[in-house]
Design a protein that fits this description.
This protein is an alpha/beta fold. The protein is 42% helix and 19% strand. It is built from six helices and five strands. The protein has a five-stranded parallel beta sheet with strand order 3-2-1-4-5, with helices on both faces.
């Protein structure tokens, strides 16, 4: 059984994330979408909220599980028996950041493989940061996030 993990902050989940999730789910028996709990990073949504958003957005994909973790990615991978890391790449800057992470992960857990999926061209400029920047000023984020998630983002910025 091939179990993969797609980890990130997903703050908020975007259509770019969903594209990677849907494509990766076709490649593996189980895909665990894992929300990283990073105490050093100020997030718009709590870990539990982000997990809930991902559960809503991925409910149509049978082999996707949503989880959260704190600490090293490789420790979580070992804990759940995953041997593949899925990463999305939008550009060469993403690759420049991802490759050193790949090298460190392989040193810490040599059983892990990393699979990179290139972003679809319509999602190349899409990021959680861009979503937040548009949403804070009341702009239309419909083309950026799953429909199930949009109300949560709008509500957050109306407070």
């Amino acid at each position: 059984m091939r179990k993969a993990i797609y980890a990130g902050s997903f703050d908020p989940v975007t259509l770019g994330h969903m594209d990677i999730i849907e494509r990766a789910a076709k490649l593996f028996d189980t895909l665990v979408v894992a929300v990283l709990e990073n105490p050093n990073k100020k997030s718009l949504f709590t870990v539990e909220e982000r997990k809930h958003h991902l559960e809503l957005a991925t409910k149509h994909i049978e082999n996707v599980e949503v989880a959260s973790f704190r600490g090293l990615f490789v420790d979580f991978a070992k804990e759940i028996g995953a041997n593949v890391a899925v990463r999305g790449l939008r550009n060469t800057l993403d690759f420049s950041a991802e490759y050193p992470m790949f090298l460190v992960n392989r040193k810490l857990y040599n059983e892990i493989e990393t699979v990179y999926l290139a972003a679809d061209e319509e999602h190349l400029a899409l990021s959680s940061t861009n979503v937040k920047e548009v949403a804070v000023f009341g702009g239309d984020i419909s083309f950026m996030v799953p429909a199930e998630i949009k109300p949560f983002i709008i509500e957050k910025y109306q407070k």
